[in-house]
Design a protein that fits this description.
The chain is an all-alpha fold. The protein has one domain: Arp2/3 complex 21 kDa subunit ARPC3 (Orthogonal Bundle). Helices cover about 85% and strands about 0% of the residues. It has nine helices and two strands.
Length: about 210
């Protein structure tokens, strides 16, 4: 009799588990579609807001949310989308005029790795403290984004950047940090930190929706 009850319980549990799995998969697809659309719209809007020679980045917050909800590779995808919009919007035109392959590699790689890093950092910390995990991921994203940009500058654009610096009456390193990065990094970092509480609330709500908890 007990064995029969166990078998009946297992039979009933299997369809429920399958439904939950399908529901979670559907929610993930819908969520990623929504986050992708948000990244595209925000970056197109941000392209019109200039700090110095380049536009600010408003998409790192939704990239952090996507990476937290759906994993590091989701963050990488959203970062890749962000990079693609930067290229298509003409925001990287000055660098495309120097080297097309170098610009494409730098822009796509910095976005993808920023999202990937945010996801890994969040999931490494979130079991201990979700708020701290969001803050850490929010710091990791702009740091990696800017770090890969600097690496790309050194590898692909250093000769031209040195000429730009001389024309501006600056040392090359000074020009990179003042002329290229400027306030952008601090704006990106500040937006993520200011929105940390909002991001945590969104993640908590979305997790309940996805996991039906």
């Amino acid at each position: 009799m007990e064995n029969t009850k166990v078998k009946v319980g297992e039979t009933l549990a299997a369809p429920t588990a399958d439904r939950d799995k399908r529901r979670k998969y559907t929610m993930t697809i819908v969520g990623m579609g929504l986050m992708t659309a948000i990244v595209v719209v925000l970056q197109i809007f941000a392209a019109s807001i200039k700090l110095g020679e380049f536009s600010i980045t408003l998409t790192l917050a939704p990239i952090v949310i996507g990476a937290a909800l759906f994993g590091p590779w989701a963050g990488a995808w959203l970062g890749l989308v962000f990079g693609a919009v930067v290229l298509l919007s003409g925001d990287a035109a000055a660098f495309l005029a120097i080297t097309v392959p170098g610009t494409i590699i730098t822009v796509l790689l910095k976005g993808a790795l920023a999202g990937l890093a945010a996801g890994f950092v969040y999931h490494l910390i979130q079991k201990k403290n979700r708020y701290v995990a969001v803050v850490a991921a929010g710091i990791a994203a702009p740091v990696v984004n800017t770090g890969i940009f600097l690496l790309g500058v050194v590898v692909f654009f250093m000769g031209t950047i040195s000429e730009w610096a001389a024309g501006a009456g600056m040392e090359t390193v000074q020009f990179i940090f003042v002329g290229l990065i400027g306030l952008n990094f601090f704006v990106e970092l500040g937006v993520n930190l200011v929105l940390s509480s909002v991001i945590v609330t969104i993640i908590n709500y979305a997790n309940k929706m996805i996991n039906n908890r």
